[in-house]
Design brief:
By secondary structure, this protein is mostly helical. About 60% of the residues lie in helices and about 0% in strands. It is built from nine helices and two strands, in the order ββααααααααα. α1 packs across α6, α2 packs antiparallel against α3 and α3 packs antiparallel against α4. The relative contact order is 0.09.
């Protein structure tokens, strides 16, 4: 069973249950911890200590104890980077990038496909994520042919969309 995150409210840090980490769990932890740290005004110099305490897995606790001085000397971003290096399989990032870049709409509804791509893209380290502009450039070649044709032939404005297909194509102010 994979690790999971529990967060009661913004006043408590996100807690990660024991189990193997996934890119999704680490990305969720990173986002939730940033919100918690901002909301609770956690000083930068103790964020790594607080973050390490959020993991209930003995292997992660042992890893932190062994590398504590190095990890505490770095930033929260460095902690997340080192966590990924230590607990995700080799090639995880490249595999996820292939999923994002190689994704095709197929028979799925457009928004379901977009949500899947966005979720996988969000699991990548910040410096590897595709911007919305890049996603919009990449997606037409991978969407259903009929929707792609509609995209090419239909002019869009910033006004409210009148139909579901206009909404779908107007993905993030397309």
């Amino acid at each position: 069973r994979f690790a999971q995150i529990a967060t009661a409210n913004m006043r408590e840090p996100p807690l990660v249950s024991p189990g193997p980490l996934t890119p999704e769990v680490i990305a969720q932890f990173e986002r939730r911890f940033k919100l918690f740290a901002k909301f609770m005004e956690v000083d930068d110099d103790i964020q790594v200590d607080v973050a390490a305490a959020c993991f209930d897995d003995p292997a992660i606790q042992n890893w932190f104890s062994t590398s504590e001085s190095t990890l505490k000397a770095g930033t929260m971003a460095n902690f997340i980077l080192e966590l990924r290096k230590a607990f995700l399989p080799l090639g995880w990032k490249e595999s996820l990038e292939r999923e994002v870049f190689g994704s095709r709409q197929g028979s799925r509804p457009f928004l379901e496909w977009v949500n899947e791509i966005e979720a996988k893209n969000a699991q990548l380290p910040a410096d590897s994520r595709l911007s919305y502009e890049r996603l919009r450039r990449e997606m037409p070649a991978r969407m259903k042919e009929a929707l792609h044709t509609h995209l090419i032939l239909t002019p869009f404005s910033d006004a409210k969309c009148k139909t579901e297909s206009e909404y779908q194509i107007n993905f993030r102010n397309w």
